Amino acid sequence: MIELEGLTKRYGEKVAVNNLTFSVRPGIVTGFLGPNGAGKSTTMRMVLGLDRPTAGDVRIDGKHYDQLKDPLTYIGALLEAKAWHGGRSAYNHLLCLAQSNGIPSSRVREVLDTVGLTAVAKKKTKGFSMGMGQRLGIAGALLGDPRILMFDEPVNGLDPEGIHWIRNLMKSLAAQGRTVFVSSHLMSEMALTADHLVVIGQGRLLADTSMPDFIARNSRAYVRIRTPQRERLLDVLHEAGITAVQTGNGTLEVDGGKSEQIGELAARHQVVLHELSPQQASLEEAFMQLTAESVEYHAHTDAPQPPPQPPQRQWGEDWRRS
Ligand SMILES: Nc1ncnc2c1ncn2[C@@H]1O[C@H](COP(=O)(O)OP(=O)(O)OP(=O)(O)O)[C@@H](O)[C@H]1O
Question: Which residues line ligand 1 (CB under 6 A)?
């Protein structure tokens, strides 16, 4: 388990990570989602003790990273691609890592095999492609056979075959009961990989929810209606037992695929409609909307600030209505 409590990091005036509290559980892939600059890498660096929190705490199986004996056997991480000496071979790079962390050297061949680099194990890493570099980084994360794995944007720059491989690897690691924490700025990628989602924007927690719950809430069908007789239509819909929500831009929204029924009701009561359109929210749109709100919230500091809301409400209820 990785547990964050009120985790905060400031760089001068900049609040990179703002009071994050959540847990990353074993046996599932937890996606850590946020736009560029949201604070994902800073959070991961604090998990590994590479950055010191300004406030709050982060623990791995109840301990701080620097309290772990042989930390690579607890938690393996891919933070930056190509964080190694280019003049060394892949084998020697992993061997050094193994020897300095009390890991048997026999493990080096095993992880090279797992990531598919056996054939190039003796080649200098400076000639490696981006995809080979990512695989080597992942081999390093797997070296200590840790129960917890953390990957920062592992699919960046990979070809479709590499992306497919990493996706399956993460799923199989979680299926073995390990904790898998993976960051991305792409909802579409997370939708295919993660069982659980933690979404941040501007360093703040925006959502902490299961992927099925996120999909159920955000891929709902709804009907958008524009009418110059809004109050009249609201009354007609209300009488028919249909709940409509007024949005900020003057339209009405009704959950579900009831456009025919609404059209017929409007005709029967002679209500003019300017638009009656079935909509299907995509997960990518839901994510963009969710994080765009957080950017806006921070950009207009003169605007009246809304009262703090529990994270579930901020993203679940309001995203289509503002
Ligand atoms: N050492 C630092 N000094 C000052 N500001 C920093 C430092 N490291 C990160 N930041 C700032 O903190 C914010 C969060 O950065 P971070 O790299 O954690 O975001 P991210 O979500 O990982 O983004 P990306 O997807 O682009 O990697 C950014 O505004 C960044 O500019």
Answer: 11, 14, 16, 34, 36-42, 185
Backbone angles phi, psi at 226, to 5 degrees: -120, 130
One domain for residues 207 and 239: no
Q: How confident is the model at residue 88 (pLDDT cuts 50, 70, 90)?
A: confident
> Rounded to the nearest whole angstrom, what is the distance from the C-alpha of residue 16 to the centroid of ligand 1?
6
Report whether 214 contacts 48 (CB < 8 A). Answer: no
Q: Note the ipTM here.
A: 0.95
Domain that holds residue 254: 221-280
- pLDDT tens digits, residue range 95-126? 999 998 889 999 999 999 999 999 998 988 88
243: domain CATH number is: 3.30.70.980
Would you say the C-alpha torsion 225, 227, 229, 231 has a positive or negative sign?
A: positive
Q: How far apart are CA 211 and CA 67, in angstroms?
A: 33
* Ligand 1 atom 4, closest CA: 11
36 C-alpha to center of ligand 1: Å? 8
What is the pTM (predicted TM-score) of this model?
0.76
With a cut of 90, say whether residue 287 has pLDDT above it.
Answer: no
> What atom of ligand 1 comes closest to residue 9's alpha carbon?
12
Mapping DSSP onto H, E and C, the string for 21-35 reads: EEEECCCCEEEEECC
